[in-house]
TrEMBL record:
Name of the protein in question: Deoxyribose-phosphate aldolase
Pathway note: Carbohydrate degradation; 2-deoxy-D-ribose 1-phosphate degradation; D-glyceraldehyde 3-phosphate and acetaldehyde from 2-deoxy-alpha-D-ribose 1-phosphate: step 2/2
Locations listed in the record: Cytoplasm
Native organism: Luteimicrobium xylanilyticum
Pfam annotation, one family: DeoC
Function: Catalyzes a reversible aldol reaction between acetaldehyde and D-glyceraldehyde 3-phosphate to generate 2-deoxy-D-ribose 5-phosphate.
Gene3D superfamilies: Aldolase class I (3.20.20.70)
Catalytic activity from the UniProt record: 2-deoxy-D-ribose 5-phosphate = D-glyceraldehyde 3-phosphate + acetaldehyde
Annotated gene: deoC
Length: 232
């Protein structure tokens, strides 16, 4: 492969992608189309709002990999009581979610209330059993570098499997290469790092991977993979 892609072929890049549809106006038909497209593309997972669960997904994609189902929790504000987040996560797991992406209370992070942030994540972790993946959305664009580090530390201490940059709905913005780098350095390979929010091109995707992302949340996966195909 060309060094332009960092050695990734199409199937390899597809396996980074959580093929995402979280728009409030999404319909059941939209979600069914997303699942079909995700399976055809060979992405790692589809990510949808919890009200669309359970989903019927194909047993295996074109590379023989099973399509995972991801959903969100406390989304997009994070301003929910911890027990409500936990109940939402438990319902999603019961409805077949393989992965849950929860939002922290960003205000608590801005206030430096790291014990609260950790307890909030721990409450959801208790509802998401081992074997199911818990990702923690820290809304990195709204945080300072120090706050990003501390949010990652609190998430790891609470048992998270991944830290994730963004909901994609915050006015401060989505993923940045700097935030992904800080997150990756902080968790040191012990947790995954999901970059999400504003990743729309092949260059965007490869930049995030180069800076340490191990998963990409995106609604533009088909276009990005088509860009890679066009490189020959």
């Amino acid at each position: 492969m060309s060094t332009t892609t960092g050695g990734l072929d199409r199937a390899g890049l597809a396996q980074f992608i959580d093929h995402t549809l979280l728009k409030p106006e999404a319909t059941r038909a939209d979600v069914e189309a997303l699942v079909a497209e995700g399976a055809a593309l060979g992405v790692y997972a589809v990510c949808v709002s919890p009200s669309f669960l359970p989903l019927t997904v194909p047993d295996a994609g074109p590379e023989g990999t099973a399509l995972k189902v991801a959903t969100v929790c406390g989304f997009p504000s994070g301003k929910h009581h911890s027990d409500i987040k936990a109940a939402e996560a438990a319902r999603s797991v019961a409805d077949g979610a393989d992965e849950v992406d929860m939002v922290i209370d960003v205000g608590a992070a801005k206030a430096g209330a790291w014990e609260y942030v950790q307890l909030d994540v721990a409450a959801v972790r208790a509802a998401v059993p081992q074997g199911r993946v818990l990702k923690v959305i820290i809304e990195s664009a709204a945080l300072t570098d120090h706050e990003i580090v501390e949010a990652c530390r609190a998430s790891e201490a609470a048992g998270a499997d991944f830290v994730k940059t963004s909901t994609g709905f915050h006015p401060a913005g989505g993923a940045s290469a700097r935030a992904v780098s800080i997150m990756s350095e902080t968790v040191g390979g012990r947790l995954g790092v999901k970059a999400s929010g504003g990743i729309r091109t092949l260059a965007d995707a490869l930049t995030m991977i180069d800076h340490g992302a191990t998963r990409l949340g995106m609604s533009s996966g088909a276009a990005v993979l088509a860009e890679l195909d066009a490189l020959g």
